[in-house]
Design brief:
two-stranded antiparallel sheet, 15 helices, TATA-Binding Protein, DNA_glycosylase, globular, about 300 residues, 3-methyladenine DNA glycosylase
């Protein structure tokens, strides 16, 4: 039986800057199995969102000849999402202030990725929960947990969205997930407890979206279990913060130091090397992750743990 959908709301935006759509929005994707993000065969980027007005689906396409970007949105949150389409595409970002000249590796990476912008979703909880799931575990574990929980407790994305595209649960639904389903998804008690702490103050967290980056970051770190790394991973997406450096990451410091000096280093060394880029340290680190040489592996990979049996 054929399915009918409400007409899409549409907005066309012509950035006054060079934009690489896939590179910019790809920062919001939580791995290739992310059920909230999809790249269609025609190159359109689909993503779902849980906005203050309700769920929505967003389809974004770009024209190379004119530079125009068109957003089509469905669902109760469609208007809210389209109002923020420019911010989502990095209109609030200012890479012109990036001092790329301090190191040739970063300078070359910046030139080759001129279309990279920092996306600002304006949705704090949606960025925070996956970041908490990524605390102190392998990427494979975290992305599997996020995928399973969204599949179990999310809802189908509205409109003619691709099969399998889903909207993350709302705060009330996250708070009702039972202990055994956290364990089935591979989430230990410490991370699920931190998510519950965040859910208790979810409205206050969402009110940090329009705040200055420094103040929003300070308030996020007031939640028990949320430290520097989780705050940075959240701020990169919710606020498009180009300085939100993920200090404490298992691999980042080694990669940054190796790319800039040829020798792996720790967080302190990374902070020292990136000090000339203050205000844009996340941008510098991201460019190095995209283009820099990889640190040679000298240790076995961490094996994923099975929390469902704990």
């Amino acid at each position: 039986m054929a399915t009918t959908h409400a007409a899409a709301l549409t907005r066309t935006f012509r950035p006054a800057y060079e934009l690489d759509l896939r590179l910019t929005l790809g920062q919001l994707q939580r791995g290739h199995s992310d059920p909230t993000y999809r790249v269609a065969a025609d190159g359109a980027v689909w993503r779902s969102a849980r906005t203050p007005d309700g769920p929505c689906s967003l389809r974004i396409t770009a024209r190379r000849d004119t530079g125009e970007v068109t957003g089509e949105a469905w669902g109760p949150g469609a208007a809210w999402q389209l109002d923020r389409l420019p911010a989502l595409l990095g209109a609030d970002d200012d890479p012109a202030a990036f001092p790329s000249h301090h190191h040739p590796q970063i300078h070359d990476a910046f030139r080759s990725r001129r279309g990279l912008r920092m996306p600002r979703t304006g949705l704090v909880l949606a960025a925070l929960i996956p970041s908490i799931l990524e605390q102190k575990v392998t990427t494979i574990e975290a992305r599997k947990a996020f995928r399973l929980l969204v599949l179990w407790y999310g809802e189908p994305a509205p409109g003619p969205a691709p099969d399998g595209l889903r909207v993350i649960p709302d705060a009330a639904t996250w708070s009702r997930i039972p202990t055994w389903d956290w364990h089935r998804a591979g989430v230990d008690h410490k991370r699920s407890r931190t998510i519950m702490e965040a859910l208790r103050v979810a409205p206050a967290l969402e009110r940090t979206a329009p705040l200055a980056n420094a103040e929003a970051s300070r308030l996020l770190k007031c939640v028990p279990g949320i430290g520097v790394w989780t705050t940075a991973e959240t701020m990169q997406r919710s606020h498009g913060d180009p300085d939100a450096l993920s200090v404490g990451d298992l691999h980042l410091a080694k990669q940054v130091c190796y790319a800039l000096t040829g020798t792996p280093g720790d967080d302190a060394r990374m902070l020292d090397l990136l000090e000339p880029y203050r205000g844009h340290r996340h941008r510098a680190a991201l460019l190095l992750r995209m283009t820099g040489p990889r640190t040679p592996r000298r240790a076995p990979r961490f094996a994923p743990r099975d929390y469902s049996r704990i």
